[in-house]
Specification:
Distance between the termini: 65 Å
Helix content: 25-40%
Number of helices: 13
Strand content: 15-25%
Shape: elongated
Strand order of the largest sheet: 14-11-10-15-18-17-16
Oligomer: single chain
Structural class: alpha/beta
Number of domains: 2
Largest sheet: 7 strands, mixed
Radius of gyration: 26 Å
Number of strands: 18
Amino acid sequence: MDRLPCVLTIAGSDSGGGAGIQADIKTISMLGGYAASVITALTAQNTKNVTGIHAPSSQFVAQQLLTVTEDIQIDAAKTGMLFSEPIIEAIAPLLRHKKYPLVVDPVCVATSGAKLLKEDAVDALIRLIFPCADILTPNIPEAEMFTGIKISDREDVFRAARILLDMGPHAVLIKGGHSQSWAITDWFVARDRDPIPFLQQRVQTISTHGTGCTLSAAIATGLAQGLEIEATIKKAQEYLNLGLRASFPIGEGGGPPNHLAPWLKVEAREKVLSDLNQFCRWLEASDGIAALLPKGRGNIAISLPYAKDLSEVASMSGGIVGTHGGDALSVGFPDFGVSERTGATLLAVQRLNPEVGCAVTLGLTKKMKQVLHLSDFESIWIKREGKPDYISLEHGRFEEWGTFTILKEHKAPGIVEAIADPGGYGYEPVLRLLAKDVGDLVEKMKKLFKILKTLD
């Protein structure tokens, strides 16, 4: 087997497992690196608070760093909680002559509010560690503390970044998670270059413990793999965003991102394709069910957990059609990224209701409108007349825009079960039925078909 790039993390231990060394090792391993560690402090903490900190001697911390680097080739490193001035003074000479990129996450305070850096260590961190950093990754409160600037807008971010650059790091990434906005913007600023914004949609979750550790470890892993800094920041952001969307409670307080989220997606692929095949077999075996299908070509879309784009949504490669004999036929084979309109609708719904896992495109005749009304399914109608000129009708762009636009106006997006598209010139009216999973989808289609038969 080829050698994995080695990423060294120099940080504190989190007994709750969500931040520090534990988060770093999970992140590095999940992204394809080999994790080595130097532990600067032991913390007794859970999701609610930090109840104690015990630090080894500064000499022992330096001994860990020297021992690891004497034998193991380090491809990149990161620092997190460095805790005290003696520890910083002990490791700084070893970092000063490093031959690998270093990410410095200037950890000062835990998510729970506990201080993780002694007051007398702030000056030592700036004076001895910042000049060793290839990239410094403070959040807004940390950037404000180090620079003395109150950050309210992007011009303040740029001023703070310039001050931080004067402290010695080659580049700065000021993280925007503490700002109040729909999207999170991390600003990358390097010497003699224009600032670059890196945007991610904000995730509504309390599971933000260890996000800074996770992001910096992911950046270090990308650098160890030879990625350019812009590419590694983007990849790290995407990994963290996925982990936040896949997070789950582990205690009474705020938990961490789900560091295993990418693996869960890989594991889910086989089941998604199996569910798709199972649905198509049921459809083809159900007498008369083709009456629910559009005159043209429909499809079913089933997504991987926390899907980011159409490449993570499975459908039939040739769609689903009704035959002249009244049968339903699935065409082609199950595959990912092959249904633009149904898949785009599903992705748009998931932005506001991640509990929805699949969708199917049905016909929307006058009789089907009656069926929909009698079903009591909560439904909304896309407004084609409001489409902006810049939204294309191709590749599912309109369906994504139209669905998201109308769904976000609904008082309770989580209860919507059907998206009706009135169609237009060259576009058949269709109904996209939403469900949590294939079993739920089958039951909803059975209900519609039962009502339809009463109208014949």
